[in-house]
């Protein structure tokens, strides 16, 4: 069980049994029937300290209540054409599953522009994917595999990465803070592929700042990572940018566009969007309309580790912009 001893789990569970009913209700959406495994995640995020883990979880549950996170899947971004713009500029999708049954999230870190909508839409979209993962994808994988599946792997494509992309530091900080405080320990491994020189330069600065448990999750693979990734997943589950013989870009070409899991036309996004529209009862309006974004308050007190990384990256941007 690692950091989460049975005694710590028991203490944590006893504390959670005492929270108010509204917190208990939203906690059900978090643990999906797997209370011990959820408590273990928060304990691991706080180095096994029950008091700190309890505060972290209660703060997260209050954040969910205050921002309507339990209802966020019933608030699709509309109309579809506008949402397509979000998807085209916030590159993320599910390409398949590992042989152990873990969903494989592909992320176009290098080519995401985040320039088709306000920051609130991107935060909303990110949280909706998190919630869909935790409430639909992972429970379905658990049932299919006959064992608990509570985490995923992520493959980050750095094709096209430029230092100018770090001008999105505010948005990236917001998203990482949301994840750090409310969705801890949901990723087993981060595979980084198609790395250009600029990433290598930043990684040399960032790596020494990371906690050991975080560094152990990051694997920088050679080229597009295809050979290494095929050790844990079958070819059809490879993200499209890992299927070429060389280290290609994230933009699919030819038959690869069919399997481009970033696209709104990909089955993952079609199923997600249909699910949200079904929950909301919203049909595509006859006249163009746009629903306002969901403004989610970003909790304070993010991981100091991440704050230090962002400061370092900002200073690197400043250095790179000097003549």
Automatic annotation (TrEMBL):
Chain spans, region Disordered: 283-323
Sequence ranges assigned to domain CRAL-TRIO in this UniProt record: 79-239
Domain of life: Eukaryota
SUPFAM superfamilies, per the entry: CRAL/TRIO domain, CRAL/TRIO N-terminal domain
Biased amino acid composition, Basic and acidic residues: 307-323
Name recorded for this polypeptide: CRAL-TRIO domain-containing protein
Species in which this protein is naturally found: Lactuca saligna
């Amino acid at each position: 069980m690692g950091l989460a001893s049975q005694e710590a789990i028991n203490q944590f569970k006893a504390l959670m049994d005492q929270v108010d009913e509204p917190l208990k209700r939203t906690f059900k959406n978090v643990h999906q029937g797997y209370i011990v495994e959820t408590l273990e995640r928060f304990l691991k995020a706080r180095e096994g300290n029950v008091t700190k883990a309890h505060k972290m979880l209660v703060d997260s549950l209050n954040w969910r209540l205050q921002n309507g996170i339990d209802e966020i899947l019933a608030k699709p971004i509309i109309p579809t054409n506008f949402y397509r713009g979000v998807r085209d500029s916030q590159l993320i999708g599910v390409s398949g599953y590992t042989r152990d049954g873990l969903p494989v999230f592909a992320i176009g870190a290098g080519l995401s522009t985040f320039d088709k909508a306000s920051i609130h839409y991107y935060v909303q979209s990110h949280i909706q994917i998190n919630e869909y993962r935790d409430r639909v994808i992972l429970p379905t994988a658990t049932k299919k595999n006959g064992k608990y599946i509570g985490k995923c792997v992520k493959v980050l494509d750095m094709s096209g990465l430029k230092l100018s992309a770090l001008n999105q530091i505010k948005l990236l900080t917001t998203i990482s803070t949301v994840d750090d405080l409310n969705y801890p320990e949901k990723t087993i491994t981060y595979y980084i592929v198609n790395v250009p020189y600029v990433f290598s330069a930043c990684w040399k600065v960032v790596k020494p700042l990371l906690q050991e448990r975080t560094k152990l999750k990051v694997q920088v693979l050679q080229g597009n990572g295809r050979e290494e990734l095929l050790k844990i997943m079958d070819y059809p589950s490879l993200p499209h940018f890992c299927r070429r013989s060389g280290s290609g870009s994230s933009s699919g070409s030819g038959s690869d566009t069919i399997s481009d899991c970033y696209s709104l036309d990909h089955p993952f996004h079609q199923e997600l969007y249909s699910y949200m529209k079904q929950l909301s009862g919203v049909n595509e309006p006859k006249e163009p309309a746009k629903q306002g974004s969901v403004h989610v308050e970003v909790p304070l007190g993010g991981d100091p580790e991440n704050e230090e990384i962002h400061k370092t990256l900002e200073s690197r941007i400043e250095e790179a912009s000097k003549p």
